Amino acid sequence: MADRRKFLKQFGASVIAGSAISLQGNASESYVEQRRLLVERKFAAADRISIACIGMGIMGQRNVKTALQVPGVELVGVCDLYKGRLDRSRELFGKDIFITQDYKEILNRKDIDAVIIATSDQWHDKISIDAMKAGKAVYCEKPMVHQLNQGWPVINVQKQTGAILQVGSQRVSSVAYAKAKELYKAGEIGQLNCIEASFDRHTAMGAWQYTMPLDASVDSIAWKKYFKDGNSPAFDPKRFFWWRNYKEYGTGVAGDLFVHLLSGIHFLTDSKGPSRIYATGDLGYWKDGRNVPDIMTGVMEYKACKEHPAFQVLLKVNLASGAEKVESGKVKFYGTEGMIDFGWNDFVLYRNKFSPAPGYGGWDAFDTYPLAMQEKIKADYAKKYTGKSIADFPAIKFSAPDGYDDRLDHFINFFDSVRTKKPVVEDASFGFRAAAPCLACNESYFQGKVMHWDGVLMKLTSWQVEKLTS
Ligand SMILES: NC(=O)c1ccc[n+]([C@@H]2O[C@H](COP(=O)([O-])OP(=O)(O)OC[C@H]3O[C@@H](n4cnc5c(N)ncnc54)[C@H](O)[C@@H]3O)[C@@H](O)[C@H]2O)c1
Question: Is the entire prediction scored with pTM above 0.90?
Answer without folding.
Answer: yes
